[in-house]
Description:
This protein is mainly alpha-helical. It has helices at residues 22-28, 31-34, 38-54, 60-72, 86-98, 111-147, 167-192, 211-218, 227-232, 235-261, 289-312, 327-350, 356-364, 369-378, 383-400, 409-415, 429-433, 444-461, and strands at 152-157, 160-166, 194-195, 222-223, 269-270, 352-353.
Amino acid sequence: xxxxxxxxxxxxxxxxxxxxxxxxxxxxxxxxxxxxxxxxxxxxxxxxxxxxxxxxxxxxxxxxxxxxxxxxxxxxxxxxxxxxxxxxxxxxxxxxxxxxxxxxxxxxxxxxxxxxxxxxxxxxxxxxxxxxxxxxxxxxxxxxxxxxxxxxxxxxxxxxxxxxxxxxxxxxxxxxxxxxxxxxxxxxxxxxxxxxxxxxxxxxxxxxxxxxxxxxxxxxxxxxxxxxxxxxxxxxxxxxxxxxxxxxxxxxxxxxxxxxxxxxxxxxxxxxxxxxxxxxxxxxxxxxxxxxxxxxxxxxxxxxxxxxxxxxxxxxxxxxxxxxxxxxxxxxxxxxxxxxxxxxxxxxxxxxxxxxxxxxxxxxxxxxxxxxxxxxxxxxxxxxxxxxxxxxxxxxxxxxxxxxxxxxxxxxxxxxxxxxxxxxxxxxxxxxxxxxxxxxxxxxxxxxxxxxxxxxxxxxxx
Length: 462
């Protein structure tokens, strides 16, 4: 009988006469990426050893011996080891430290549930990290908004100047997006934080381990309800990937805005030196590489979500080795999300608004047209007629090269008697905004209240 010398360290092998081929081992090995789960595997194995002691498989001394030995296993060696996966790596070291006692640790435990446990433990921590970074980004946005409470900028539809808004109101739009992202991450965490250990390979454990006690010890909110579901389930991974993808989408939109707003054509923002780069050829360049990379990494995370989605779509119940392919997309999505959140917060912190430029843009175009039409409506002119009248005023102005600020009250009244001379005040973008007092609007007082509410909401999260 020919048996590969490494088979003794595997968690399986008795059924086989020959060991796996070198090609198969290279193809199926996962230690090069799942070593990220090392700490989670140690934590879960220690808890399981104590659970085995409670049902008489291990003595208390044996459980302590295993737990202490697990703490002595070196994490760094996993980078160069040639074990099948992180679980095999841990067991091999455990056996070197404790001998045959290590053979008891897998009593009633399958790698299927172990993988689910380890990945959930790891992902739970990653979500917590992302939440903290998201909070810091929102804090930076609120700080910028509060630093420029009266700054006026054009709001856009179809990438055309539409209506004047405040810089603070604009930033609060992203705070709302990121608040929803925070909610999605918390919802994903709730689904991640369900304890699978004690499910066996698919039929449940053959030993009466106290799953509720394991859940409490490992910090899970509850235990899974069906052992077959545990072996097949990666919905919780999809939930995280979706939450990460939507967060990246919002980061990408913010990046796109600020790439434009910091360009010479807009000139609203000056990005900090620490988040930009130069050109190897053109000495004058200051490129928004940090924002471009955020925008680019968004596509990677979308791809990670799609990869796991497609992997899962055709799998029969319960466990299939295809599920190994969830790890790298999960690891990548989390890495890109956290790096992008950290980068975005630094960009916001180190960028400088140049309020004169967006103010001039708001004054040059006819962003006040809606304010004029609505003032006419308040004075009894049917809105459709008011819309037509202001449209004619804009057309006349465009033809004659007049900007809103070039009109006087008398000239307005002369253009059409339905315009009152005092309505000329609305040619100032700051005036029309004062009417938008409905909740969620850009009236300065409404925005101040929204800022206060957002700040209190964020402080309650920290």
